[in-house]
Amino acid sequence: MNLWRLWYERPAERWVEALPIGNGRLGAMVFGGIAQEHLQLNEDTLWAGGPGEWNNPEAHAALLRVREALFRGNFAHANELSRQMQGPFTQPYLTLGDLYLDFDYATPVAAAASGYHRELDLLRAVTLTRYTAGGVTYTREIFASHPAQIIAIRLTCDRPGGLTFAVHIETPLRGQASPLDATTLALRGKAPKHVDPGGHEGEDPIRYDPLGGEGMDFEARVRVLAGTGEVRAEGELLVVTGADEAVLLLAAATSFNGFRTSPGLQGRDPAPICAACLEAAAATAYDALLQAHIADYQALFQRVDLDLGATDAVKRPTDRRLAHFAADNDPQLAALFFQFGRYLLIASSRPGTQPANLQGIWNDMVQPPWNSNYTININTEMNYWPAELCNLSECHEPLLQMLEELAENGRVTAVVNYGLPGWVAHHNSDLWRQSAPVGNYGQGDPVWAMWPMGGAWLCQHIWEHFAFTGDVDFLRERGYPLLRGAAQFALGWLVEDGHGHLVTAPATSPENQYRLPNGERLAVSIGSTMDMAILWDLFTHTISASEVLGVDAPFRETLTVARERLLPYQVGQHGQLQEWSRDWDDPDDHHRHVSHLFGVYPGRQLTPEETPELLRAAQRSLELRGDGGTGWSMGWKINLWARLRDGDHAYRMLRNMLQLVDGSETNYLRGGTYPNLFDAHPPFQIDGNFGATAGIAEMLLQSHRTTQEGVRVLHLLPALPSAWPDGRISGLRGRGGFEVALAWQNGALTEVKLLSMLGGPCCLQIGEHSVVLHTTAGAGYRLDGALSILEAAAS
User: Fold this and answer.
1) Cα–Cα distance, 714 to 394 (Å, whole number)
2) Residue 105's domain spans which residues?
3) The CATH number of the domain where 745 resides is what?
4) Residue 211's domain is classified under what CATH number?
5) Selection from 705, 730, 707 nearest residue 782 by Cα
6) Distance between CA atoms of 693 and 725, rounded to whole angstroms?
7) pLDDT band at 787 (very low <50, low <70, confident <90, very high)
8) What's the predicted TM-score (pTM) here?
9) Statement: residue 443 has pLDDT above 90
10) Omega before residue 20 within 30° of 0, cis
11) Pairing mode, strands 230-234 and 237-243
12) What pLDDT, on a 0 to 100 scale, did the predictor assign at position 202?
C-alpha cells in the first residue's frame, strides 16, 4: 500500500478539494470529475501590470514629521502622518484559465458511476482518477513535467474505442481559444494592465489595454494525440471519438521579459515558446515523458524519508482522516502533511522560476486574496523555511534570485523615499519587484503599510543558504553585497532614542496594534521588538559573512558597535516579552502574528543556554497569545514551541492546524486545513503548509546554535512529542553541511547516521548531554544504541 498519497472517494466540488500539480512554472488544480474533467491552470509569470513608478519623493519630509511626532509622544498624529509615506498597491498574480474535458459530449455519462477513486501520488507527483460507468472502467493520469515544461494527461479505458469527449479551454481574462489545426487548440489572451486589490476597488478596478498595449500577453496550447481514435476541430472545441487511449499535452507561456521590462510593449512572443515545448513533447512517447518526469522529481523528493508509524487510519480517504485527526492516533497523517509540504515546494519553486507566492503557483481568481503576491512581513519567508532543512536547497534559488532583483529597485526606493544608502523593501512585493510601501498613497492602514523591514528579514535566507551549504562563492558573489546593502540602509534608518540606544522610528509590529491608556488603538511607535530582533539578525549575519570572506573590517566594526546599542529586549508586567518598547501588551491579545518572538524562531538570538530569562518571557508571550490563529500562524507556533523544546505543545499546534475546514468557509480568525491538505488561513495560503513542514523537521533536528568555541550544535530530537514514541527520519540537513538520519524507540534515540559534506567538528546534543565529533569532508558516521551513542561519539 502506498502511504504517500492523498486519496478520495468522490470528485472535487470546490477548488480547495482539487489536487495540485506543478513543475515550478506551470500549475494546475485537478478536479477529477466524471462527466467533466476540469483543470484550473496557472503560469507563474502571469501577473497584472508591469514595471511602474511606486516611489514617493514626499516620503522623506513626511518621515521627519513622523519622527518629530513620535518623540513628542504624539503617537496618534505619527500614525496618521505615516500615511503620507505610501506608494501604490502591488499587482496580483492571475489565473490563466481552465481546461475542460467533457465526456458527455456525444452521450450522457451514466450518473451511477461506481468504484470511484481519486489520488495524488507524492512518490511520483502524478494524479490518478479511476471509475466505472456503463460497464467501462476509465482511468486518467495527469502530471506537470519539469523536463518537458508541459502538463500531460493520459486517458485510457478497458473497452476498445470507448473514449469520446470534447476539449475546450477558456480564460476569465481577455482571450479567445481557437483551433490551430485538427489536433491543437490555442488560447491567446491579454492580462490587465492594472488590477485594484480586493477591498480597495476604485471605479474601474480592472483595466485593460488593447492588444499591443500594456499588460501581459499569454498563450496556452493543448494538443490531442488519440492513436486509433478520430480527432477533429468543431468551432472552439477539439472532439475525440472512438479512441482506446488519448494523450493531451498542454504548454503555456507569457510575454514576461524581465522585471524591468513592459510585458506588453517590450515583451517576448509566447507563441514560439509554447510551440517548441509542444512539438518536443509530442515527438516523445508518453511513457518516456512520464519516466523523465518521475526521475527528475524523485531526485529531489526522495532525499528525505519520514516514518512515524501507521495505524488503521491510513485505510481511510484523506478528508476523513483529516476530520478525525484530533481524536485519532494517526501519526502517518502528520508524516504525509510533512511530505506534502516538500512536494508543494518542489512543484512551485524550481531554479529559473518565480518564487512561490502566497498561493504557491495555484490561484483561480483575477482578484485573489491579498493579490496572491509576495507578503514579506512573514509569509514569503515562511514559504522557504523548509528549503534548506528539508534538503531542497535548489528550490531556495528562486527566492535568492528575487532578492537580487528586489534590491535593484530597493536601492532607488532608499534614495528617493528616505535619502539613505543601501536598499530597502517593505510589506508587499510582486513580479515587478515593488520595493516601496503600499497603500495607494494614504489609503492603506499603517498597521501593515508602515514596515520597511522586508529586505532585512529576507536577507536571513542568504545566510541560511550559506550556513547549510557552506557555498563561499555564493556568499562572496551574491550574498554579501545584498547583506551589506540591507545593513547600510538599516544603519541609516536607526536613530538615537535619547537614552543611549538605537531604535527604529517609525516602527510597527506587523499587522498588530497596541492600546494606549486612553483606549486608542494604534500601530506606529518607536523601536518595536521585531524591528530590533531583525536588525540584530541582519547585523550578526553581515558581520559573520565579512569574517568568512575576510573583507570590510571597518564596516564590520561599525555594525558590531551598532548591534550592541540596539534597544534590548524587555520583560513586561505580565512576565511577557514585550512586543513594543513600552509595556503596552494586552494579555487578552490573540493576534495571529507573533512578531516579537522572531528572536526565538526564525531567529537564533534567544536560546535556553544563552538567554534563559528572556526565553521564559517569550514562552509567557506565546502562552498569552494562545493556541488558535490562522493556519499559517499555527504553523509558526509549531516552530516556536519546537525551539522552546516542548514537543507535546508543538504537536498540539499541529493537531490544531490539522482540523478540517469546509471549502465554502471564509473565516479570517480560525485556521485549519482544507480537504486537499492546503493550509486554510482561511482563505487558502500556502505558507502554513511550508511552516508546518519546517516545524515537524524542527521538532526532530535543530542546528541554529553553536558552542562558545564556535562548534556547530546538532540537537537531536530536541522536541519529540509523546505522540511519536517510535520513528525514523533520514535526509534532514543541519547547518554546517551535515546530513542527518535518526531512529528512535520509546522516545529514546537508537541510531544516528551523519554525513559531513564540509568536514570539521560538530557537537551532538542528546537531551542535556553533548559531545564533540570531529568529521572529515565526505565521510559518513554511524552511531548505534540509545545508551552508547555519546560514548561512541566521544571515542
Assistant:
1) 22
2) 5-47+92-199+206-301
3) 2.60.40.1180
4) 2.70.98.50
5) 730
6) 19
7) very low
8) 0.97
9) yes
10) no
11) antiparallel
12) 85
